[in-house]
Amino acid sequence: MTEPSIVVGVDGGGTKTHVCVATTAGEVLGFTTGGCANWETAGLDGVAGELAAALDAALTAAGVARHDLTASAFCLAGMDWPSDAGRLEPVLADLGLGGTVTLTNDSFAALRAGTPDPFGCVSVAGTGGVCAGKNRRGETARTMAIAIGEASGAWGLVRGALDAVAAAHHTSGPPTALTERLVASAGGSDVEAYFEGLSRGEVRVDAGFATEVFAAADDGDEVARGIAGACGAQHGRDLAGVVRRLAMADDTFDVVLAGGVHTAANPVFSAAFAREVHAVAAGAHLRTLVAPPVAGAVLLAIESAGVDAHGLHDTVTHAVTTGAAS
User: Fold this and answer.
1) Which 8-state DSSP code applies to residue 311?
2) Do domains 6-106+293-325 and 153-288 have the same CATH topology?
3) Which CATH class is domain 153-288?
């Protein structure tokens, strides 16, 4: 029987990078966590250093060298446009890794981690938002993730809340419980003081206020419910657009839900999202991501090594989840 070969999966994000060394049989040999691997934030030299350090730490833990690898998959934030490949491929080439090297956006790691199939779609609704997909023919599509013409995760909820509170203050919109929640979040005394501070950079609002929008919606505030529903619907339309671009509307496939906005499982948001998706793709099955996305990078590397990873999904996701928690 042929001995399994060694692969590495990398999920490089804007705040942290996960690197996992595994065999093509799904055994995890080494795992490490590094810093930012988004070249738009850290610069190309910074990403090169971060990837090299994290790779070496994981490879040392596994007791293997760079040239021992059969395949590697780098799923990186900031790999957004075709021009980014020209920037990042030389960085990966300089690592001197053995075997094939795959480079893609980090949304595809979340997709592969969330479904046993080598195809499907993913909706990421975290601090920001993006949708991506891969059909049975191996064709891929992805939204631009620039919050123009598409949803933007928690920030979309927060912007909706700011608009609603300002409109209520102007009496051009209905009153909302979000007013009290927003002012309280900054320790302010009234709406005008809040927006004066916001306009002059003295008050900050961050994506975390999205939890207050969902809480107000859960308490029955109609304005908050409207914001949650509109945001969920836009994320659903974004996913439906990917489905249409990949001609998957009549197919049966998984839609992986990733990011804190999805995992919060707000019923208004979730129902609106599902309605928009199923209006275009009745055969779409919604699945919440529970494994670390780096598990998807490992599976992509295993497939790049020429191994059918369908039956390895549960083995890899369990092993990587265990390794990430240790």
Assistant:
1) G
2) yes
3) alpha beta
The secondary structure of 242-257 as a DSSP string is HHHHTT-TTS-EEEEE
Residues belonging to the chain: 326
Q: Write out pLDDT tens, residues 253-293.
A: 999 999 999 999 999 999 999 999 999 999 999 999 999 99
Q: How far apart are CA 213 and CA 264, in angstroms?
A: 12
Instruction: Write the Ramachandran bin of 231: left for phi over 0, alpha for psi from -120 to 50, otherwise beta.
Output: alpha
Q: For all residues of the chain together, what is the average pLDDT?
A: 96
Half-sphere exposure of 174 (CA within 13 A, CB side): 9
User: Which tokens is 244 given?
Assistant: 């249409």
Residues 6 or more apart from 151 whose CB is under 8 A from it?
125, 129, 231, 234, 235, 238
One-letter amino acid at 65 equals A
pLDDT value of residue 186: 87
Residue 223 burial by Cβ neighbours in a 10 Å radius (0-12, 13-18, 19+): buried
**Residue 178 in tokens:** 């979000």
Q: Take residue 7 and report the two structure tokens written for it.
A: 């692969």
Task: Show Cβ contacts of residue 49 under 8 Å, excluding neighbours closer than 6 positions.
Answer: none
Tokens of 284: 């779409």
Token digits of residue 121: 């779609």
CA–CA separation, 136 and 98 (whole Å): 28
Is the alpha carbon torsion for 69, 71, 74, 79 positive or negative?
positive
Tokens of 63: 């007791």
From CA 31, how far away is CA 55, in angstroms rounded? 9
Q: CB neighbours (10 Å) of residue 213? A: 29
- Domain 6-106+293-325 - what CATH class? alpha beta
Tens digits of per-residue pLDDT, 58-115? 999 999 999 999 999 999 999 999 999 999 999 999 999 999 999 999 999 999 999 9
pLDDT of 325 higher than 80: no
Nearest to 253 by CA among 111, 108, 119: 119
Domain residue limits, the chain: 6-106+293-325, 153-288
Q: Which amino acid is at 73?
A: A
